[in-house]
Amino acid sequence: MGESLAILALVLFSSNIILTKVASERLDLQLGFLISVAVNVLFSLVLLIIQFFFRESPFQWNSFGFFFFMLSGFFNTYLGRWFFFDAIAILGPSKASTFQVSNPLFTVIIAWMFLGERLSVLDFLSIVIVLLGLFLVSYSPKVFIKKQVSATQESTGIEPHLVDEASKPPSKWKIILKSGIFLAFFSTVSYAIGNVLRGAAIQEWNEPILGGLIGAAMGLFLHYITSSHKKNLWAQLKQADRKGFFYYLMSGVITITAQICVIASMRYIPVSIATLITLSTPLLVTPLSYYLLKNQEAITFVTVSGIALVLSGISMIILI
């Protein structure tokens, strides 16, 4: 049950990465993020109302679960997704998803430290195999260097041939903070913390839909009060590209559904395993990005070998 929910979340998250790249080319990313998170709240609220009509067991309040779901909204829906969306716009979907490879590793460490979660030798071996496979799937140094040069140029506003190689950039840390590498890495750490918080919450309070709603509402609140688009918001929405607007609506539905699936899966399987499966996005994003976006990300023998390793590792987790 837990593995099936995690795999469904993997498919949804992978689809959203491609969708976000397409949407960001039509509509400002920050405005689109606000739209997406707002849909998170509305769609999860609809699902919660439907659940209350059909639930058999009585609803019970849990303050511990509520607090941890709220914190997970800060780290996942606000910090993690915000920085990840920016990283997608700078690095592209395939390279941005590459940094998610390290997420399970951070999750294992944090879950071990704070939840006392222990994995079997076979589970740990499966994690190592999947991580190695994801690295091979995502490995493409030429594309990475090309995108980073472009990102650095965009951050500095200076053409590469005008930069004196002997001189140092005047705002080194500013360039680093705005680079796709930093954004993707920071989003990975934020997601790892948020996933552990979700795992702790769902073990105490088995309400995945409500948990998703609480996290989404927290993320929406934080993003709204820090967004530069809150002034004349309705005017901006009226003037927004219709297709871009629709894509972000779809993104909101997809992401909250995926989050609910992840939270529910953590009730049945360890947080580390659930995170490993759901964040194996390069397995699907790399070929989809190549064929749908035509971004010249070559699929080589190394890529195919990585995909085979990922599938082998996930199969070990599910079948053994």
Structural class: mainly alpha
Q: Find the count of extended strands (DSSP E, 2+ residues).
A: 0
Question: What oligomeric state best describes the polypeptide chains here?
Answer: single chain
How helical, in percent, are the residues?
over 70%
Average pLDDT reading: 78
> In percent, how much strand structure appears in the residues?
under 5%
Radius of gyration: 20 Å
Largest beta-sheet details:
none
Kindly report how far apart the N and C termini lie. Answer: 14 Å
Form type: globular
Order of helices and strands: HHHHHHHHHHHHHHH
Q: Stretches where pLDDT falls below 50 for ≥5 residues?
A: 143-167
Number of domains: 1
**Helix count, DSSP H or I runs of 4 or more residues:** 15
Explain what the structure shows.
The protein has about 325 residues and is an all-alpha fold. It has one domain. About 80% of the residues lie in helices and about 0% in strands. Helix 6 (about 120-140) packs antiparallel against helix 15. The longest helix has 29 residues, at about 65-90. The radius of gyration is 20 Å and the shape is globular. Mean pLDDT is about 80; it is low at about 145-165.
Topology, pairings included?
Blueprint: H1 2-24, H2 29-54, H3 63-91, H4 93-98, H5 103-114, H6 121-138, H7 141-156, H8 172-178, H9 180-204, H10 208-226, H11 233-239, H12 242-265, H13 271-278, H14 282-292, H15 301-319
Short description:
The chain has 320 residues and is an all-alpha fold. The protein contains 15 helices and no strands.
